[in-house]
Structures are given as structure tokens and as C-alpha cells.
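A reminder from the course coordinator: this example appears on the midterm review sheet, so study it carefully.

Given structure:
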């Protein structure tokens, strides 16, 4: 989809992964640019993979960054706990799982897992806050309702 396409920011396409029972799954292929000099995925690349997972989780809820930015809003990471358990290499096909673990009036906490086959590579708990015009903002009631409807644990 090209920028400006009315549908590109409003729907979940196959490239965005899938959201089912509150769990979003997005495949990610490891490319040369994701690896370090030894051919193993560089630790910071996992942050990008997880950002794509959270972004596409929101896109599948029709809350893409493009839609949020039209109203001056964005989600910003305020805290991250991450554990690197195993490495991946060039051409590996990874799966980023994203689940909304907590939802309060001002923040969301996502649990994320990056796996390769049966191996868990990375786990993270990521807290994001809604920002509007550069300041923290309470989640609108419509967002709270949406998030609570898709998550069984909140």
C-alpha cells in the first residue's frame, strides 16, 4: 500500500500479521542488516521486531500510528523489561507474539515473545503511554473499551 491510500491505515492486511483471541502474531524474516559481524541477530534488532509487532497489533484494531497522528496522539515506550534467551541467524523466520497484559487509564503493558520454531529467543514486557501534543494523556473511553474487549486478562 502506498501512503495516502485510504485503506492502508485502516485495515489489517496479511503482511500485518493476525490478531486472534487477543494475541497478535507477526512473522519476521531475518535479513543481513539485522545481524552483527558474527551473523547472529544484533540485540537492538529485536527491539525493531517488537515495535513492528506492537504497531501491527494496533493497526489490526484500526488504531494505526497514521490514524493516531491525525489527532496529535502517539504511543511512546516508557519502560521495557527484556530478556535475551537465545539467538537467531540470517534467513531465520521468527514469530513476534504480542498480547495486551494490562490496560489502565494512562498506560498499556504489552507482553511480547520472539520465537524461532519452538525456541523462545526473547521475552519482554513493554509499557507504553499515550502522548498528545507532547504530554501524557489519559486513554479515551473508546480506546479503553476496545482494549478491554480484546484482552481476557484485563
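Designed residues:
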Amino acid at each position: 500500500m502506498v501512503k495516502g491510500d485510504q485503506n492502508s491505515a485502516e485495515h489489517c492486511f496479511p503482511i500485518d500479521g493476525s490478531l486472534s483471541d487477543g494475541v497478535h502474531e507477526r512473522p519476521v524474516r531475518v535479513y543481513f542488516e539485522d545481524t552483527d559481524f558474527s551473523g547472529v541477530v544484533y540485540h537492538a534488532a529485536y527491539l525493531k521486531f517488537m515495535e513492528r509487532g506492537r504497531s501491527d497489533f494496533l493497526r489490526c484494531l484500526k488504531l494505526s500510528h497514521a490514524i493516531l497522528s491525525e489527532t496529535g496522539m502517539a504511543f511512546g515506550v516508557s519502560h521495557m523489561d527484556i530478556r535475551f534467551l537465545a539467538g537467531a541467524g540470517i534467513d531465520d523466520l521468527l514469530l513476534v507474539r504480542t498480547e495486551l497484559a494490562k490496560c489502565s487509564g494512562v498506560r498499556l503493558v504489552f507482553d511480547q515473545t520472539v520465537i524461532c520454531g519452538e525456541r523462545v529467543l526473547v521475552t519482554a514486557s513493554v509499557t507504553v503511554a499515550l502522548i498528545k501534543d507532547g504530554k501524557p494523556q489519559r486513554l479515551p473511553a473508546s480506546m479503553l473499551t476496545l482494549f478491554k474487549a480484546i484482552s481476557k486478562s484485563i
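The domain at 23-149 is CATH 3.10.129.10 (Thiol Ester Dehydrase; Chain A). The first helix runs from residue 43 to 60.
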